[in-house]
Amino acid sequence: MSDATRAFYGRWARLYDVLATLPGVSSWRESAAGELGLARGDLAVEMGCGTGANLPHLRERVGPDGRVVGLDVTREMLERARGRGDADLLQADAARPPLSEPVDGLLGTFVVAMFTDPGAVVDRWCDLVRPSGRVALLHFTRSERAWARPVNAGYRAFVWLSSTDKSRVRDVASSHDRRVDAGLEALAARTTDYRERTLAGGYLRLASGQVT
Ligand SMILES: C[S@@+](CC[C@H](N)C(=O)[O-])C[C@H]1O[C@@H](n2cnc3c(N)ncnc32)[C@H](O)[C@@H]1O
Known about the structure:
The chain has helices at residues 3-20, 23-34, 55-62, 75-81, 118-128, 152-162, 172-190; strands spanning 43-47, 67-72, 88-91, 103-109, 129-140, 195-199, 204-210. By secondary structure, it is an alpha/beta fold. The protein has a single domain, classed as 3-Layer(aba) Sandwich (Rossmann fold), CATH 3.40.50.150.
């Protein structure tokens, strides 16, 4: 985890929150939370929860007797998450999460590509989940659809703008996509019924699986 990440999200927390809670985005979040198959009373954890836009979707599923934990490294993002989904918020590094209780459902949205070794991080996340619990990961990706080819230039610009390590990486969009691939491969390796689908015209990959 780099200081650049904290500085970037600290500076842009307010704008990020506006974008993260746009009405259209909520249906993606709903789909991602749905992949966890949570039940009332469960423990749901979100890694890199940002301003907490997913937390109400998790709370809705675990009910008042369940527990929702949002973990993020950036204080300013967590300040905006306060009150959302009645969650316990932890400022910590998601690469080394300080959690000991078995987790029923673990969510990561738009975060896996931020790790230098996403495969190792996802593997560690799977270790935290009880057998038969689920992990769901949602990410932007380049669309493979024919109509999207001209729009992919916009995608590359979007990824570049939102990247916290553009000074260190030459092709930011390709590096982002490779990291997402590595995270999803690790998830596929650790789960029994790994499944993946695209949303938003192919610009989002939603993957999930049941931990063995
Ligand atoms: C693109 S935002 C996604 C936020 C949220 N998941 C969402 O869907 O709106 C990425 C978030 O990951 C957090 N983050 C990045 N690296 C992290 C790390 N190593 N540990 C915990 N959080 C991290 C950032 O602070 C930021 O809030």
